[in-house]
């Protein structure tokens, strides 16, 4: 038996990896990493084995093959001889269309409903409460199907518009037709189109009215320039106001900058409004908003709008009462108080949860399956997978698309959020 | 230090220490975790479909979500129909019990994934036998139980007499089907336009069509007849004369298990042969009891030879399959024949001896 003369050296023991707080976290992370790698490896291995067992390979060559199926709603040129990739793109654009339309409408509805729910008018605030609770607490799918059924079951058929004594007639001075196949609204066309009018099949009794991408690009660029110019005018007014205290009246200048270039370009292109009319089985010309689009768009907007209303209400209530009292004390009217004092401050609370509502709406748009709206799930993730048997590739692409889209929306909204955040000075 | 107490041991660096109870427990947990991982990695690999089905005690059979006459639940929720008859015959051949079937309703879009993933063992859902489905989608069609073609149904008061008059019409179409591709080809080659309304199930199509949300409903002519039979006023709707495609409909299984494919193929052939040989549900008990003087009937019903053993089933497998719902002709007449509301004539689906295409290779 020896006696201890000096303190024992703190030798590293393996058990320290678990029982010593200095090393434990590293151990846990390493174990988690190994487990994750093993898990992924197992999934990949399992997939490879099962693909081999089914005799399937893994490649994306099917995207170049002709799709063979038609799509009713297409924002770009497409016919059944084009590739599966093109069909997927048509679907992607349809998804983006309904997502953008939905986000915009839901925001408008949500802000209005949220503000009105705080109204001092009992009837108005109760009505908004009914709207919010009604839409928030019933599954979205039911709303989609309900609107779709109402459209297709209770609206008149196109042939009801025919005859000397038609059972149904177009509304808004014969420019809009509401049928059980959707709503036809007037569209803008160009008799002097940049892409030429020869390509457009002329309908009997109506001159060929094209609507090419180049025309819209020109109009878009014109409007963009106008908006930038208006921005300059406004910032100049602000500078003058800061210097002199008097804001110059520029609304006629702004209106002119917006309208006059647009009118010139419109005249140059021969822009006309083309109203839909009945021909054969259906209405023709005009823009056809299909039942599926209307049902999906309305239901998504109303449903997400009810959540946004609550977010807006929470945001407004988060602004201290002193702010509105101060504004009233300065003699501001309630309307301006809301727009200039309350809402800008409320935005800081509203924007972060709003991002997740936009993401929800975009992903919920895949419920299009219920009403046959041809979104990317229906083209790439539906018919293409079904005709080619490329489930794995198709689903990976589909998942990848929604992931990229969601990340994109988050980053744009986060940028916006950073701009509205309170800056410490 | 000559003797070590229980639970005391040297660690890797030679230091003696005593394990606490806590530590022992923790080691066990880690060990169990490792075991689970090992078990998960080992779990891949599949047995033969017949063994799976036998172990499960029932056949998983994919059918439509409801097409009267072909596959639809009756008032008591019991599935019945022409395609259902095939499922029941296969179940009877395997188990001797035509009720040992789990019916899995599938849409045009979900059916192939369901079959490829093993959710169902057999798909009997008016599915057209095509090259790419057989080769690229890796399925094995075991025969044709209905020779069909794609037709168009329109309301009579639309005044349309030919499919070529349908320029600009709105057409209801089930997505994920061959009819969708035929439709695109037909309108393109005839240089006329149409507006497709994609729908998932036959019930949805029926609702949209009756509401007038589409002018035309197109699918296999048999499906149109079956759908029309369920209308309140079937006489107000007419099938256009054009049949724009060949649609040989048949049951199918996955590639890669030929023994299982054989069972399904020869069950279907047994039903066909039974009609040809005059074996039906009323005389089957008598014929299967003892050898008759027709050797082909004897081989079919297992009273002679060992055909059952060759495909891994009982000797009386075919007799059970036929007893389940009758022979091919009986199934046809009972579910979709001229005396039913659907009222389809045998036409191409008559026996080859009567000028049709229904033919079975010999049982030998």
Please name the defining characteristics of this protein.
heterodimer; A: 425 residues; mainly alpha; MetI-like fold; 3-stranded antiparallel β-sheet; two-stranded antiparallel sheet; 12 helices; 7 strands; B: 364 residues; alpha/beta; D-Maltodextrin-Binding Protein, domain 2; 2 domains; 5-stranded mixed β-sheet; 3-stranded parallel β-sheet
Give an overview in words.
The complex is a heterodimer of chains A (425) and B (364). Chain A has 425 residues and is mostly helical. Chain A has a domain at 58-154 and 290-425: MetI-like fold (Orthogonal Bundle), CATH 1.10.3720. Chain A has twelve helices and seven strands. Chain A has a three-stranded antiparallel sheet with strand order 1-2-7. In chain A, strands 3-4 form a two-stranded antiparallel ribbon. In chain A, helix 3 (84-117) crosses helix 8, helix 3 runs antiparallel to helix 10 and helix 10 runs antiparallel to helix 12. Chain A is globular, with a radius of gyration of 30 Å. The mean pLDDT of chain A is 87. With 364 residues, chain B is an alpha/beta fold. Chain B has two domains: 49-147 and 249-354, Periplasmic binding protein-like II (D-Maltodextrin-Binding Protein, domain 2), CATH 3.40.190.10; 150-245, Periplasmic binding protein-like II (D-Maltodextrin-Binding Protein, domain 2, 3-Layer(aba) Sandwich). Chain B has 14 helices and 16 strands. Chain B has a five-stranded mixed sheet with strand order 12-11-13-10-14, with helices on both faces. In chain B, strands 6-3-7 form a three-stranded parallel sheet. The radius of gyration of chain B is 28 Å and the shape is globular. Residues 4-14 and 34-46 of chain B have low confidence and may be disordered. The interface between A and B is large, with 49 and 52 residues.
